[in-house]
Amino acid sequence: MHEDIQEVLFSEEEIAARVAEIGAQITKDYAGVVEQDGQGIILISVLRGAAIFMADLAREIKLPLEMDYMAISSYGNGAKSSGVVRILKDLSSEVEGRHIIVAEDILDSGLTLTYLMKNLASRNPASIEVATLLRKKTLAQAEIDCKYVGFECPDQFIVGYGLDFAERYRNLPYIGILKPEVY
Ligand code: PRP
Ligand code: MN
Ligand code: MG
């Protein structure tokens, strides 16, 4: 284990098993939709944290799909987000009439997904659902309807499997709690 990690919450094996389950569920749920539509799903992730989850999830969905990416930034550099969001990189594809699944690594305050869902809905997709690997247990969370949730996690500073602290630890293969003395 990395010396900055206090406790492993989800091991590499646990994550892989859960991602496979979510992928299998999506495959089941969308098989008919994709067949009827004649077009695959568009899996969208928000850079950068969700890139690892999305890459693994995509390979567990046994249906035609496209992958696309958006980068957004919250204004201000405080520890807490200001609530104002702007697009740094937009999608490459048109999503009108398409079935979208947003892949996120974690749902915390809900600010990111609130913005994203509103933004994507304005492009008139056929449907939008959210797959989040982690959902933090916190009272201050915006109400977001997530069809696929990997794990509930405690309101602690967690890193790994895409999640960073100051851009570090994203490449840890497991998800763990960061030692308080590190931040
Ligand atoms: C993190 C995480 C989610 C978001 C969740 O991204 O990857 O996208 O925060 O928090 P919220 O529900 O409070 O909005 P971050 O903005 O740190 O950027 P990153 O993905 O590049 O790490
Ligand atoms: Mn993110
Ligand atoms: Mg981050």
Automatic annotation (TrEMBL):
Keyword field: Cytoplasm, Glycosyltransferase, Magnesium, Metal-binding, Nucleotide-binding, Purine salvage, Transferase
Cellular compartments annotated: Cytoplasm
Pfam families listed in its UniProt record: Pribosyltran (PF00156)
Enzyme class: transferase
Molecular function via GO: glycosyltransferase activity
Cofactor(s) listed: Mg(2+)
Pathway this chain belongs to: Purine metabolism; GMP biosynthesis via salvage pathway; GMP from guanine: step 1/1; Purine metabolism; IMP biosynthesis via salvage pathway; IMP from hypoxanthine: step 1/1
Transferase found in the keyword field: yes
Protein EC: 2.4.2.8
Reactions catalysed, as given in the entry: GMP + diphosphate = guanine + 5-phospho-alpha-D-ribose 1-diphosphate; IMP + diphosphate = hypoxanthine + 5-phospho-alpha-D-ribose 1-diphosphate
Alphabetical list of InterPro entries matching this protein: HGPRT, Hxn_phspho_trans, PRTase-like, PRTase_dom
Phosphoribosyltransferase domain residues: 14-165
Family: Belongs to the purine/pyrimidine phosphoribosyltransferase family.
Protein name: Hypoxanthine phosphoribosyltransferase
Species the sequence originates in: Raoultibacter timonensis
